């Protein structure tokens, strides 16, 4: 594990606010996949003014989201590590060092989820787990097909690797710094995921590909616990706006900048049981899901029983 501090930074006495966040980390989960080196578009999304192929999925976007988080937290050393074009290079070096240390090579054939974290002092850590292989098209979409029946022929029918069971948490969430940014303070998301149905043996059913959406006290869907959701509304795909209080993730940014969707409030009561939605995150790219009703979910936080049909 490599640790880094910005050169030339002066040591400061620890403040009370810093002591309160001593164990807090900002993190992002990045896909590492040799398939991405074939994409000039991913190279553009990964570096500043560099044409070298990148195996890291939208690396620059991950750096940007982490930089925004440490900026709002007031972490000077962490900001110094991440900011500027050199910050992207430093982040890439940390990831490559991990690959060499943990996988004996800077280029690994198996796709990986790399979880990179940084604390208030600018120290970084990386962990990794294996991921399934996906077509490049599901990592760098050019458009959202309006229905699954219109998926390009290069993508086979939905499989357990790409389809999600999606629920809506019955517990309203109060937006905060910890919902706007991805940090290790995950209590509201852990509570939401505790509602995902279990088998009689108490094991989370299809947990790796089960998602639960969270909504604020106004009834607006904010985000998923580990994904960004996209809903078909009035002939276009929409994603909840940042003003709802959720995380502004990397694939969400990509989708908005590419014109794949627009921001629009999505009320939880408008989400229908059986509705098909798209989901995305920085480790798995895009997949599709179907809304399911939690046991006992009723009219107060209900989901409609009439699925929305995509035309």
Which term fits the overall shape?
globular
Low-confidence stretches: 1-19, 153-160, 202-208
Elements, N to C (H/E): HEHHHHEEEHHEEEEHEEE
Count up the helices: 8
Category by helix and strand content? alpha/beta
Strand line-up across the major sheet = 6-5-4-11-10-7-8-9
Average pLDDT reading = 85
Radius of gyration, taken over Cα atoms and rounded to an integer in Å = 20 Å
Reported for the largest beta sheet, the result is: 8 strands, mixed
Percent in helix: 10-25%
Instruction: Compute the number of strand runs.
Output: 11
Beta strand %: 15-25%
Give the distance, in angstroms, between the N- and C-terminal Cα atoms.
50 Å
Supply the key terms.
311 residues, alpha/beta, eight-stranded mixed β-sheet, three-stranded antiparallel β-sheet, 8 helices, 11 strands, 20% strand
Give a description of the structure.
Helix 3 packs antiparallel against helix 4. The longest helix has 19 residues. It contains eight helices and eleven strands. The protein is globular. It is of the alpha/beta class and 311 residues long.
